[in-house]
Amino acid sequence: MVTGVGKATGLGFAVAQTLAARGDRVWIAARTAAQAEAMAAAIGADVVPLALDLADSAAIRRAAEEVQARDGRLDVLINNAAAVAPWGETAAGADLGLARGVMEVTLFGTWAMCAAFLPLLRLSPAGRLVNVSSGAGSHGDTGFGLTTGNGMGTSYAVAKAALNALTAKLAREETSGVKINAVCPGFTATFEGGAQMGARPVAEGAASILWAADLDANGPTGGFFRDGKPLPW
Ligand SMILES: NC(=O)c1ccc[n+]([C@@H]2O[C@H](COP(=O)([O-])OP(=O)(O)OC[C@H]3O[C@@H](n4cnc5c(N)ncnc54)[C@H](OP(=O)(O)O)[C@@H]3O)[C@@H](O)[C@H]2O)c1
After folding, report:
1. Which protein residue's CA is at the shortest distance from atom 42 of ligand 1?
2. Residue with the nearest Cα to atom 8 of ligand 1?
3. Which residue, 62, 5, 10, 64, is CA-closest to 34?
4. Which of these, 59, 83, 186, 192, could form a disulfide with 102 (CB 3.0-4.6 Å)?
5. Domains, the chain, ranges and CATH?
């Protein structure tokens, strides 16, 4: 299951496409049915589209019931969806209504996904939960981090830092063997003009995410990684 597969230029689409090409059944979630169906048609193969607004916790619970009814379990959950902070948002000057909206999707929506789907991941022989985070939520990332970066809005960075904290707490209490990690895809060209700004190709960012989905039984849990290497919290 990959969330945030709303456009063909995004990381979620690239991740879902790679998984589908391997022959896996992939559930793709997008904000609207039209987006999910268009993306499923573009990928082809065994892709099941789901309309899922992450701000709607009842829809998240229904989605888990749908997966349970059809497949009986889930092997990999990739929480890729995230809300974008309002342009130019600062810490002291933020519109807290808009900032709450970012937290609602990126933190609480992802949290609800974890809670709803962990019971299904526990039924897999090798359940993997991947929270797509960002160096923007890291205290130690020297390029984009909380103490160094100036590129990302505050609510985005705070939501990603909280998502990292949630990942650590979930992994700490999980005794089932499901591996739970946060990953950063790196600065990736998923937006207009990204490549010109030095962002890397989408395939590279997608590989950074898929690394945590593909961990074997000896792989880590409860960490934060980019390209398979630990990233400071
Ligand atoms: N690109 C980078 O440089 C970079 C760097 C670090 C981390 N990341 C992370 O990588 C992930 C993918 O980002 P991306 O660059 O591929 O951007 P993206 O294409 O905008 O992906 C984000 C997806 O989340 C969806 N989303 C937003 N609000 C939602 C909601 N309420 N319900 C359901 N879906 C919702 C968006 O839907 P719509 O299409 O409908 O807007 C979009 O499809 C995100 O978690 C992002 O924070 C990206």
Report:
1. 4
2. 134
3. 5
4. 83
5. 11-230 (3.40.50.720)
Does residue 79's CB lie within 6 angstroms of at least one atom of ligand 1?
A: no
Length of the chain: 233
Query: pLDDT of the chain along its 233 residues, tens only?
Result: 999 999 999 999 999 999 999 999 999 999 999 999 999 999 998 999 999 999 999 999 999 999 999 999 999 999 999 999 988 899 999 999 999 999 999 999 999 999 999 999 999 999 999 999 999 999 999 989 999 877 679 999 999 999 999 999 999 999 999 999 999 999 999 999 999 999 999 999 999 999 999 999 999 999 999 999 999 99
Q: Which two tokens stand for residue 9?
A: 């230029």
Active-site residue set: 156
Estimate to the nearest angstrom the gap between the alpha carbon of 228 and the chain centroid: 16
Q: Is the beta carbon of 152 within 6 A of some atom in ligand 1?
A: no
Contacts of 65 (CB under 8 A, 6+ apart): none
CB atoms near residue 207 (< 10 Å): 18
Q: How far apart (Å, rounded) are the C-alpha atoms in residues 190 and 78?
A: 17
